[in-house]
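I hope you will forgive my troubling you with a question about protein structure. The record follows directly beneath this note:
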Amino acid sequence: MYEILPYTKELDQRLDRFVDQESVNGTFLQSRRFLNYHPEGRFVEKSFILHKGGVIVAYFPGAEIDGEFVSHPGSTFGGPVIAKTCYNASQLKEILTQADQHLASQFKSARLKVTPALFAEESPDLLDYMLEHLGYSRYTELSSRNPLCKDMDIVAQCNRNQRRLWKEFNKFAETVPQGSIQYRDLTSEEDIATFYKFLVISKEKHHTKPIHTLEDLMDLKQRLPENIRFKGLFYNGRYVCGMLQFVFPKTKVIHDQNISPDESFEQFHHTTPMNIMALQEAAQQGYTSFSWGISTEDRGNILNEDLFHYKESFGATGTVNASYTKKF
């Protein structure tokens, strides 16, 4: 009934059109414009599509790791990505059953990380149900988001400590010449390189490294100018703090991918105004959610309580990112 086609580069334009325009839960993170920034050989590419009557009905971006099919490790979430016309109980069951049989014939196990509700045009509930009833086990990671609207008082949503730091920042701003403090886009290679320098320093303090190289970020900005943006806070022309944002226009979500503070700056507390200004800007631009990403490790088994409480201090509430695994 369905033909399974392995991914080839010749499918790139068709897949991107499917993800962007024809799917119920596709985002730029599953597009080949995004995934192909990874150099050949970084992953063992095993993406595939389900095809029927010359039409793509589902897309499973993924790679093989130690005999397991993994929703593409080069993306925050992978799939499956389902056609709008097929997102109903009978067709979805057929599609997932066919895909499950393919996975079972090729791999010892599978791990599927579906698009969370926040980023999908339709609720993932039907997809979740079908996967569980095909024998997939569910595990969750705890993420968080701020609901937004244009007339919202962002500061009022923050806790007492963040309101105090914001007040102190504004008192400082009143003592310096107008224009000394700027919140603006980072567009030049020099600005983005500065952002990245402090991102590396920040990650080193936590014994980690950035997911992306500076070259990756430059490439992504060129590939996806509408979806990747950098914001920065400056004082007298000096970089104070920056943020890498992923933009999801279809579902009106801004996602904070990374924050990069200059910890040597002491005139005011920098991350509080950076976060509040980012929230205020997103609300004024008509976005309805600001996503902070996960606060968990080890597939959700470990909660970084300090990190989650920090996000809560700006008014964020918990959301769940679900993944599904199955051994064959």
Observations:
- Residues 89-106 form the longest helix (18 residues).
